[in-house]
User: Fold these one by one.
Assistant:
Number 1:
Amino acid sequence: MQRKSTDKGPSFGEQFHTDSIYTKKPPRFTMLLSKLVPKKGKANTEFCSQYLAFKELPSPIKRKFKNIKGKYSSEGPISVTTKERVKEKGKKLKSLNLHIK
């Protein structure tokens, strides 16, 4: 993810989010690469298991979710895609696509 110098609001990663929720089989792990490391206590990455969170819910609450389907999208105003950055900068951006099998 890249931010423009004029971006003043929160970035996508600054709010609770889940990575790769749109895949049929979620990833077993994640890797983070920090270009700038904030001072201790100023930015924290936390991980949680949504499977465990659901498992621990009382049965009456679980039943409320039985037939609910979600739509996961990055269409909101907080999202900026590589395509938008290319259009903005007028040149192709370097990106890293890492596939681990």
Note: The helical segments are 50-55, 59-64, 82-89.
Number 2:
Amino acid sequence: MPTYTATADIYNVLSSKIVAQLTDDTNGTEVNTDFVDDALERAESIVDSYVGKVYSVPLSTPVEKSIVHAVVTLAKCMLYRRRNSTIPDEVESECEKVTEWLKEIAASGVELDDEVTTDDAIVAEQNNDPEVFTAQVFGR
């Protein structure tokens, strides 16, 4: 189970339809929470690897909103990559911004507090998520 986030936090950046398409290997209609949790855990590990250079990790919970945003954004990218689909440009850009922000933290250039955001942290609107259709989703 993720430490900094909850499975439901992924729905702040992806619609349930897209999460199902990215995690259901059978027909793309049911969310596989095991894959979501795995992506969140791996994303938390990445966050810890950067933040741990200047802060004691794991961070005390509940963590700041900026950390939750970083974790779910990285997990979002991992779910797209898991599906072997092309990552939409806006998603890739969000991941790059989060990674740059984490690098700044690691270099002691950014102090953690609730006011810190990732370049005005972009949260995808559920209706604007690109649909994911791949042969793997539908078993072709």
Note: Residues 114-127, 133-140 have pLDDT under 50 and may be disordered.
Number 3:
Amino acid sequence: MPLLLSCAKTVVGDDGSSNGEGDSDTSAEGVDSNTGDGDPPEDWCGLSEGPSEPWFQVYQGQELLGGGSDLRVECGFQGFFMLETDPQLGGFIPESEEVEFHVTLDVEGYNVGPNGHFAESDFNIYVACCEETYEYSYECYYLQTRFQLFPPDQIDDLSVIHGLPGTLSVTMQAPEGPVEQVLDVQMWAVEQNSEWEFCDY
């Protein structure tokens, strides 16, 4: 997958802040030129190759989010509408098997969820290497490796957000301090091929 950050500014503060006052300030242009030795160690299956400083990107399917790309509402396997995305990350050795993320989504006119956002949640993304205790134990299947945001219950018809601009804000807690990106997206909330039937009941 590409390693250019899309329409976002990534800031790592050595003092634990994300206000750009730390020693490292990496913009979208800077990440591509700083390839470093960011190959992940073998013990960290959830880390990706990339810059030698802490970084992450967010994908939906094969598409890198940002720059007004579509963020699609999906009918999840559990029977609820959701917005599922995949983080790719690397450039550091985690302090545990999980890396903490805080994710919010804002959609103008529809920020009726908790804390004034359209959606918000914390995630502990598993980045170590998982092995099943025995065949078909499904231990690894239930580990958290993706972001799953759920729309507010107050919105009965999600098609009202289709085509609206949204802001996806993602903060990763790295050992060196928080790394934050603010991604511009466009909401996609149109059913195709009756794929929403399971969630409409």
Note: Residues 8 and 30 are 11 Å apart (CA to CA).
Number 4:
Amino acid sequence: MLGSSANCVLSLPSTRTYCKGLSYVRDNARGSQISGLVVWGKTRNELVRVEGEVEVVEVAGILPRHQQHKVVNSIPSKGSTCSFISHDFASRVHASIESLGHDLCVSMPAVVREFPNVFPEELPGLPPHREVDFEIDTIPGAAPISITPYRMALLELKELKKQLEELLDKGFIRPSISPWGAPVLFVKKKDGSMRLCIDYRQLNRITIKNKYPLPRIDDLLDQLKGATVFSKIDLRSGYWQLWVEEGSIPKTAFRTRYGHYEFVVMPFGLTNAPAAFMSLMNKTLQPFLDQFVIVFIDDILIYSSSREEHEQHLRTVLQILREKQLYAKFIKCEFWMEEIAFLGHVVSKEGVQPDPAKVKAIMEWESPKNVSEVRSFLDWLLLQKICEGFLRGRKTFDKFAEKRMHHSTGMTNVLRV
């Protein structure tokens, strides 16, 4: 029930799982008993009482029946902050919880409570102009590309109008008279809501690629040896926190049933956007990279060998984010964890292990039947350093791709580990 509040008693099963944040369900009959998993660093089998108001803000979609669900944090207005997921509820619906009001809960670590303005519920407005704005350089002589808008269902048109109004109100887009124009479409998110996507594929084909390197994930994870405490910060709509250079704004233009618009902040879907944001974050946190911070695009992981060190490390990063006016999404952040999921892995003082959800997805991956599917599978894998036999399997798959073979018996068993 939307807008409901409750005092909740969480009854925990003994099953060990990796999850973050909170998924909430009210018992239909009593409205007060919740079964789930609470995460305080490592999962512990115990009863935890949460006192205070929580608000159910979204109910949509059916979740698959397995343990690794995406969940979000809850900040009760009073009492403890905890994380849990209800397996019973997961088989029926998904509900998100967000805090009532803007203040961080008193049970949060003191260092986090010092920086409430780093965790706004929405971006406060247009970002400051940073050292470098985002530029789109196209190959010499390339003519502007304008594509007829895609057809949309009535429900999609209604959502399109709503999201355009929101973007205009925030100042992230403006009306355009640009000769450029990409079409738009919607992609359904896991929670059932719709994400507005600009189809920049034609623009990307004629864009000069930014060669700024994204870090190797295995190199990043190597930095975590000896760490025992972790915090993860997820920036809120990170790309929208970077301006587009004025001369490049017309190239971001997109066409819709309701008008022609262009972005003044960096939109999603542009080929050089990840490299540009990676460059920004590396410059922002340069003095501390590989000391107690690793960054992958808009994900920041702070790691420390002790809780005392971690307090100072976390404060340092939050101070920089506040100074640079970079904002995070609290419901996707995790603090003071002994075990944390990051970039498809679970890291702890014991080392780095593959995320169980990712392993499950690999084991259930259907047999590739053509070169495109083989390459897609290879690009998705990130576990070569911790999966025995991976390199042997990788070489076999590479041979399939090189010979442009479209089918082979037994491909699903090549990477059996």
Note: Residues 22 and 135 are 38 Å apart (CA to CA).
